[in-house]
Write a sequence for this structure.
């Protein structure tokens, strides 16, 4: 049997066909289904985009109303998990929120009628994916409030996903401008090609496992600092720069120490990250000294990177301004990456549903490079 040796990281290797979306790195463009993702973020609601990912088209008004009612009814955490939720919330450090979410989602799967994808029909698969997605922000907000010494808030049926997320974290109904800013961030980060977490979700789905198992695996991949775990680290970098006020010197020191500059560069984009452009606009709209400072820092760091790597342009990525926007909207720093996960659940579930239509397990090979067999 002949084998193909793939490049490190499977770079530029096509492993599946998808109708969910595409990322064109050389153009600085990405799409959801047949629409520009950035156009959707600028003009649609999160619920409309969520419907698009599930059903492959934008909803008409009646379909949207039904979808909103259906998904809001799925937000509540099963009562059986209340004691586990409190135990898990108080364990570990504040930046282990995705690990806590994985644990609670696994328990939720055990207390509900989740069915393995292999055995489930299309309607059941969709139902399980909607439940996992709708429940996620409620779980995360509850975990955060318990750690802060406050009681979790029940989800409100009169609030959108973005509004309810901010309300669940802060206990206050958010100002419309801030709720819309978070909603646009959520839309812009729903999906982004075959990244590590999405691929992980599809590998697990290909085994016929249930939706919750697949999203828990995706969360594990997502938690890494080279993937979803970067927005808070990018804001940490802005804090370091603020101490001296010299972004150029800071960036040069990072390069000299062979440290990665979080919030800059991307595995796919060779031009501006369109998500970063959108979030810069949102940050500017919200205003404030942090946004102004971040825009100045971006220019200085990009200039340093251009000098250091003249043949490989490196620009601000989605994580750089994500933290600025979320901070401006009152999201605590330890909840930046969990906010990212709230949106990405939609994309993971869409990929899980698509993968479930293919009944073949994903089973690549590895090349053995260890010592020879002892005979």
């Amino acid at each position: 049997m002949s084998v193909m040796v793939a490049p490190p990281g499977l770079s530029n290797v096509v492993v599946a066909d998808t109708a969910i979306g595409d990322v064109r790195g050389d153009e600085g463009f990405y799409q959801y289904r047949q629409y520009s993702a950035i156009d959707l973020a600028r003009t649609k609601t999160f619920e409309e985009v969520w419907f698009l990912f599930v059903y492959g088209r934008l909803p008409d008004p009646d379909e949207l109303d039904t979808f909103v009612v259906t998904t809001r009814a799925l937000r509540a955490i099963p009562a059986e998990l209340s004691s586990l939720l409190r135990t898990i919330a108080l364990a570990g450090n504040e930046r282990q929120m995705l690990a806590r979410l994985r644990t609670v989602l696994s328990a939720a799967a055990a207390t509900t009628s989740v069915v393995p994808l292999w055995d489930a029909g299309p309607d059941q698969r969709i139902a399980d994916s909607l439940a996992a997605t709708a429940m996620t922000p409620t779980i995360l907000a509850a975990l955060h409030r318990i750690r802060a010494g406050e009681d979790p808030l029940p989800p409100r049926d009169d609030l959108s996903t973005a509004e309810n997320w901010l309300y669940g974290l802060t206990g206050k109904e958010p100002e419309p401008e801030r709720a819309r800013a978070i909603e646009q961030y959520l839309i812009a980060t729903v999906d982004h090609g075959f990244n590590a977490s999405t691929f992980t979700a599809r590998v697990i789905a290909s085994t016929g496992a249930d939706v919750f198992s697949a999203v828990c695996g995706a969360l594990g991949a997502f938690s890494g600092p080279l993937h979803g775990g970067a927005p808070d680290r990018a804001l940490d970098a802005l804090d370091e720069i603020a101490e001296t006020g010299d972004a150029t010197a800071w960036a040069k020191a990072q390069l000299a120490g062979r440290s990665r500059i979080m919030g800059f560069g991307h595995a796919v984009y060779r031009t501006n990250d369109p998500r970063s452009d959108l979030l810069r606009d949102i940050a500017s709209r919200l205003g404030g000294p942090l946004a102004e400072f971040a825009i100045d820092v971006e220019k200085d760091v990009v200039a340093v990177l251009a000098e250091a790597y003249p043949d490989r342009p490196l620009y601000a990525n989605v994580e750089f301004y994500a933290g600025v926007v979320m901070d401006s909207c009152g999201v605590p720093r330890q909840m930046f990456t969990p906010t990212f996960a709230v949106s990405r659940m939609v994309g993971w579930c869409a990929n899980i549903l698509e993968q479930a239509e293919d009944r073949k397990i994903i089973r690549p090979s590895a090349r053995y490079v260890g010592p020879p067999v002892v005979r």
The longest strand covers residues 21-24. Strands lie at 21-24, 29-32, 35-36. The mean pLDDT is 93.
